[in-house]
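Incident log, structure service

09:12 report received: a user says their structure output differs between two submissions of the same chain.
09:20 pulled the input from the user's history:
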Amino acid sequence: MVDPANKVLPQRILLTGASGFLGRAVLKLLQRNPSAMVFAPGHSEVDLTSGSAIEDLFKSIRPTMVIHLAAVVGGIGANRERPGTFFYENAIMGIQLMEAARRHGVEKFVAVGTICSYPKFTPVPFREDDLWNGYPEETNAAYGLAKKMLLVQAQAYRTQYGFNAIYLLPVNLYGPGDNFDPTSSHVIPSLIRKCVEAKTLGKASIVVWGDGMPTREFLFVDDAAEGIILAAEGYDKPDPVNLGSGDEVSVRDLAERIATLTGFEGEIEWDKSMPNGQPRRRVDGSKAEKEFGFKARTPFVEGLRLTVDDYVSGFQSASSRDTIRHSKSI
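09:34 re-ran on a clean worker, output below:
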């Protein structure tokens, strides 16, 4: 696969969500390309739910390409608690950004959607043609539908205005630097934190939602960033494209792998009163390879080890700092 950092991209790129998990990985790749001038304003600088703020941003930086990664995201618990927020903020950000990009003559808009947009009972592997064949899984439907509206907008704008907008569908992402906040994290960082904390505190067990039977496909964050850059340079068609790794693992197997990697030897208890989420997730990634040469490079076992090691290292450093502060206060 061609190194995406060596691709020739337009000179002025607006990257939203650059401080987020995926955004940091994309920004790192873009910054390796000397031909790209990247603008990556943070949330504190620009409120992307504000139409006037977006208008001022476009007038100021005059982007030739927009890569839209900014999103309000979270695990099943966060989606159940705040579906209105997840729908409104994700929809309004994308809709206003794409409209501003059209009016300001942006040459290309890269919209990054979500695997949550697929119907709950999509045949496995998920193919892009199945995207509209049913309603998404209920616990994250509001988020999935909000993001899917950007595909509708992209295709409508291409038809009416000749606007070049593309739409990508990455599977669940993971990797070092993920969000480990227990109130909003996804399954891999959540399980890693549970296991590390339980081991440190000497707990006999951890509790995990559901029965462990659902499966997920995971894509290493650096691989996802490569796919986005390759598509930004080499894909200009209206059809959505999956970004995946091809590796499908059950949540039960995932929990056991993470327990082993973290050294947690206690019991894993399954709370079957809580939702499982979508039964299975694995995509057909052949279109991405065919259209712009993307194929994931990081084996899941290696990526998971890197993610665990990164969190454990940070956890141990934080614990050491706390110990030093405590000893000085005695």
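09:41 both user submissions now match this output. Likely a transient worker issue. Closing.
09:42 reviewer note: Residues 4 and 230 are 6 Å apart (CA to CA). The chain has one domain: 4-322.
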